[in-house]
Write a structure and sequence with these properties.
16 helices; four-stranded parallel beta sheet; Ferrochelatase_C; Rossmann fold; EC 4.98.1.1; alpha/beta; heme biosynthesis; Ferrochelatase; ferrochelatase activity
């Protein structure tokens, strides 16, 4: 397996992935890997529609009188957000990274699992093209036999993975389901190789600090925050993020202190704290002058790493607070071990299942959403949960 290659001979994997980049598929795909993510505007012209879709998606964010307030907020923020995208090159690189990750993943799977090959990836973004509907239509047109729905949010939240999964349920609501064997990977935040990637990214930055302060550098794991209303409902996201942090620190094996902080709050309601920018300021006041920010919930670079972390926090906030040195660990991107992590997750899923986890099918203790309930029932049928349970 690719994960074994990565662990036993790290020198082989980069050459393998180099060969993978040059490879091309010539056969009809047998197995689809549907990669779910929110996406990001590739050009500034897409920003307005992108924000409109986010602000009107009640799975992502809930606002009073959302059909009117959501579009108003999106319109008010469009020009400001456009400027941010212009400052990082004119658009989000999330499609480019996801496409590359998908190509490397499927080529690795072709070598690991010839019985389910050829594998082909389909990008299913929530708020920009290619949309979820586009991915499903393309997959059906290709005539695949099996489809793995693979969330690119390693830690599950009803607002992120949940929204994308609801979009798939909406697509098939009034349609006959195709003759495809579906299965679902909705969370994988504690995968051993994923933790290794984050640990490696931190080590890369620790080397940049002088040896006299290296062990004292504060490692700040930062993740997209969540409204406290969702946390109180029982959304598993906070503890799944914390589990990823714990797994990473176990791999890292350094004496440095570390904390989990939260970024990207939207709207007036209370969200998970401490906020990343506030934490930078507070630590600076306490005399902590050396820090690393680690985007623990993101698998590729996008606006929240390239602008919010790099420009707003590492440059502007840290300088104003008097921080002597702050570094930002890179997202996994195309790190060889990250490709191995994805291949490890998917190959184990394809060979041993289950087709859908009981964890996903369970609901939050205070969930009263009829939409959530209907979605769970949909995935029981889509992934043939009853048959899977009998087999196990």
């Amino acid at each position: 397996m690719l994960s074994l290659i990565c662990q036993k001979n790290a020198k082989i994997l980069p050459q393998l992935l180099c060969n993978v980049r040059c490879a091309s598929k010539s056969h009809k795909p047998k197995t689809a890997i549907i990669m779910l993510n929110m996406g990001g505007p590739q050009t500034v012209d897409q920003v307005g529609d992108y924000l409109h879709r986010i602000m009107t998606d009640r799975d992502m964010i809930q606002l009073p009188v959302q059909s009117k307030l959501g579009p108003w907020i999106a319109s008010r923020r469009t020009e400001e957000v456009k400027k941010k995208y212009q400052e990082i090159g004119g658009g989000s690189p999330i499609y480019r990274w996801t496409d590359l990750q998908g190509k490397l993943l499927t080529e690795a799977l072709d070598q690991m699992l010839p019985e389910s090959a050829p594998h082909k990836h389909y990008i299913a973004f929530r708020y920009v093209p290619p949309f979820t509907d586009d991915a499903l239509q393309a997959m059906e047109a290709d005539g695949v036999e099996r489809a793995v729905i693979f969330s690119q949010y390693p830690q599950y939240s009803c607002a992120t993975t949940g929204s994308s999964l609801n979009a798939i349920a909406d697509f098939y609501k009034d349609k006959k389901q195709p003759n495809i064997k579906f299965s679902l990977i909705e969370r994988w935040g504690t995968n051993e190789l994923l933790a290794t990637v984050f640990a490696d990214r931190i080590k890369e930055k620790l080397k940049l600090f002088d040896g006299s302060v290296r062990d004292d550098v504060m490692i700040m794991f930062t993740a997209h925050s969540l409204p406290l209303k969702a946390v109180s409902r029982g959304d598993t996201y906070p503890h799944e993020i914390a589990a990823s942090v714990s797994a990473t620190m176990s791999k890292l094996q350094v004496p440095n202190p570390h904390r989990l902080v939260w970024q990207s709050k939207v709207g007036p309601l209370p969200w998970l704290q401490p906020y990343t920018d506030d934490a930078i300021k507070s630590y600076a006041k306490k005399g902590v002058k050396h820090m690393i920010l680690v985007p623990i919930a993101f698998v590729n670079e996008h606006i929240e790493t390239l602008h919010e972390l790099d420009i707003e926090y590492c440059d502007e906030v840290a300088k104003e607070a008097g921080v002597k040195q702050i570094e930002r660990a890179a997202a996994p991107n195309d790190h060889p071990t990250f490709i191995a992590a994805m291949a490890d997750v998917v190959s184990k899923h394809l060979t041993t299942g289950p087709s859908v986890s009981r964890q996903f099918l369970s609901r939050c203790p205070h969930c009263v959403s009829a939409r959530c309930q209907s979605s769970k029932e949909f995935y029981k049928k889509l992934c043939n949960y009853i048959e899977c349970s009998k087999e196990m």
